[in-house]
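Q: Sequence in, structure out?
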Amino acid sequence: MPPVAVVTWNDKLAKAAYDHSVEMKSNDYFSHTGLNGSNAGQRITAAGYTWKTYGENIARGYTSEQAVVNGWLSSEGHCKNIMGANFKEMGVGRQGDYWTQLLGAR
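A: Exactly. Output:
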């Protein structure tokens, strides 16, 4: 993938990511869809983030930041999200070995 601009950390995206990881771990499921049927866009809106575009990566089973990032970068779809030129901000949340990364732009 070609280089893109650096993204900045966003606490609202991080909170939405963390909450989704907690929900997945607490309820022993793994999905981009929340238990209430929500998608990532609805979850980040509920967290107070006004977006034009967003992306979400999820992972399970990784025990370190480096391992999960390597896993995402080794997957074409996840890597395209991370290297998406439209994204300007991101947040990541972890609960146990459940990980959620949210990327967005306003």
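The first helix runs from residue 11 to 27.
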